[in-house]
Write a structure and sequence with these properties.
Length: 436
């Protein structure tokens, strides 16, 4: 794990948030490679969940919602984690993170043995960030930064039904920022305070919810496996009743085998029943019903929700793709996720004819390849290959003296290190096939 964190910093994937001011806990900034990886990941999710289907549409709601949204959804009263405070140094912990509490108790050996009297009573801490809309900071203007994007979908259900003429079963997908004032953060991107989420709310007829719940659990697993996550690192878990929200009719989680904690949540898939739409109907006083033209029935749809954090998924893909092979480090990222798709090199940086041909190929590929194409003429070819392997670039193109004669270049594959000669004129088609 330390190696991945170091690589992410060194190569410009991920930087600590507000680093020059000493950092801001629970925030991370995406550097040039990180933003490319994140963009590709979101793009793959959107492709699968929206573009490739005819039963899902997209939405991008605002981040700030009316405070009543959060009362209706139950977040004001129940979006809490149990908190306890160390009476010795006043550090705060999640009461259910027993390992961290035990570790902390050991840091005060002189005051006792970490007994109960060194800790405050457990109280519930609300994770929503408060803010005020407009120039007056009072209760009437108070709202929250959204801790999930899902509510933006529920409050727009009627708008989407009326404007898109979608028929149940259908879904609304959204990617956007969520904010949670987590009591403790940690494990790099795993638990942070500001993160992007990819959420689908899939509306179904009550009674058909179980079959759609199974369907989405399988779909989501297929998405991870299709992008190269190793099957042996994934588990699908049904959460016991005591661990799920009171309104949920069932929640499964896709667990990843994290190096820092073993199996734990990567993505949640919940059957939210009709809770959210009913709550918004009740609190807003507006009827939110679906009218089935075939059966002439009116009903509140049930909702199946697959939801995952972009950063948490990125972390899983980074960990899963990291490998060391003799003297090289490779990120064996799926080509669709790789932050740089192709790197172009002139064999020698001081041979004008090689450099200008390489630059021509580079600028042509930038137009045809859907993603980042890089150019590198520093150091020797071996070092350039290793440098690209480390960031997961699937293909490198080298222009050498023979290229000037036969109009071919060497294309080297990251995973096999095999090289083949490809006609420059065929490169566009070659990469179109290889990268898709
Ligand atoms: N709308 C459903 C929902 O918000 P959740 O299980 O609380 O469900 C969904 O969050 C996903 O968001 C999680 O499975 C995880 O991938 C990600 N996530 C949640 N809290 C996070 C945090 N503090 N840092 C990073 N990712 C987080």
């Amino acid at each position: 794990m330390e190696k991945i964190v170091a690589l992410c910093k060194r190569r410009g994937f991920i930087f600590p948030g507000s680093e020059i001011y000493g950092g801001l806990n629970g925030t991370w900034d995406l550097g040039p490679l990180g933003v490319s990886l994140s963009h590709n990941l979101k793009n793959q999710w959107w492709r699968r969940m929206v573009y490739e289907r005819n039963d899902v549409v997209g939405l991008d709601s605002s981040i700030l919602y009316h405070a009543k949204v959060w009362e209706a959804s139950g977040h004001v009263s129940s979006f809490t984690d149990p908190l306890i405070e160390c009476k010795v140094c006043h550090e705060r912990f999640r009461a259910d993170h027993t390992k961290e509490i035990e570790e902390h108790a050991k840091t005060h050996p002189s005051t006792g043995s970490g007994q109960a009297d060194e800790w405050t009573e457990v109280k519930q801490f609300n994770l929503m960030f408060k803010t005020y809309v407009g120039p007056i900071d009072n209760e009437n203007n108070k709202t929250y930064l959204r801790p999930e994007t899902a509510q933006g979908i529920f409050i727009n259900f009627d708008n989407v039904i009326k404007t898109s003429r979608m028929k149940i079963p259908f879904g609304i997908a959204q990617i956007g920022k969520g904010f949670r004032n987590e009591i403790t953060t940690g494990n790099f991107l795993f638990r942070v305070r500001e993160f992007e989420m990819m959420e689908l709310e899939f509306f179904v007829k009550p009674g058909e919810d179980k079959q759609w719940f199974d369907y989405w659990r399988n779909e989501r697993l297929k998405w991870y496996f299709g992008l190269g996550i190793k099957k042996e690192h994934i588990k699908l878990i049904d959460l016991p009743k005591k661990d799920i929200a009171h309104y949920s009719k069932g929640t499964s989680e896709i667990w990843y085998d994290w190096p820092f904690m073993g199996y734990g949540e990567l993505e949640g898939i919940a059957n939210r029943g009709d809770y959210d739409l009913s709550q918004h109907a009740k609190h807003s006083g507006k009827e939110i019903l679906y009218f089935d033209e075939n059966t002439k029935e009116r009903f509140v749809p049930y909702v199946i929700e697959p939801s995952v954090g972009v950063g948490r998924a990125m972390l899983a893909f980074l960990i899963d793709s990291y490998c060391e092979d003799k003297d090289r480090v490779i990120l064996k990222l799926h080509p669709k996720l790789a932050p740089v798709k192709v790197a172009v090199f002139p064999l020698l940086a001081n041979k004008e004819e090689l450099v200008s041909l390489a630059k021509k190929i580079y600028s042509d590929l930038k137009k045809s390849v859907d993603g980042v194409v890089a150019f590198d003429d520093r150091g020797n070819i071996g070092k350039r290959y290793f440098s690209q392997d480390e960031i997961g670039t699937p293909f490198c193109v080298t222009v050498d003296f023979q290229s000037l004669e036969d109009k071919k270049v060497t294309v080297r594959d990251r995973d096999t290190t095999k090289q083949e000669r490809v006609l420059i004129d065929n490169l566009e088609k070659y990469f179109l096939e290889k990268l898709n």
